[in-house]
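Supplementary Methods, section 5.1.

A reviewer requested that the exact input to the structure prediction be made available. We therefore reproduce it here, unchanged from the version used in the analyses.
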Amino acid sequence: VSENGLKSTKVNPPSSKAVTTLPNQVALGIESILERNDKVEINVYALNSQPIAGVQLEINPADIFKIDSIGGGRCGDIDFTLRSNPKGLMLGFSMSGNMVPVSKNQIPADNILFTAYGQVIKNVKSKMVSLESTLAGKGGVKIDVLSIPYEWNGK
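The structure derived from this sequence is encoded token-by-token as follows.
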């Protein structure tokens, strides 16, 4: 339990091997899910070797969390417009052409794109949660993404 009273779960990868991506492929996933009562904070990370101009993400499965808002992280640092809907669709982009810079290292906790704030709407035990994603680079060119699943222990 953290200093603000939130319970934290972290991904437990099945092995200690580093994630291998293809050249210019972005590793994307959930770094942690912090929970207190029925409130959650979902930290979304990206390990990217090229700048990101826009993101569209959806939490899968869609029936566990209700997303109220998103904010902060590297997207917040560069004044991305961040929007979400209750079903878990999350968008981030810049009307002024700002882009999320290349990751400084390969540590997910150092590369949080943003945090999704919401509620638990379905109690589950040990569920794999992933992000369906579309990322865009400079000029709107689609970026190849490897989505890393996250094991959430539920309530």
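The longest strand covers residues 125-136. These observations are discussed further in the main text.
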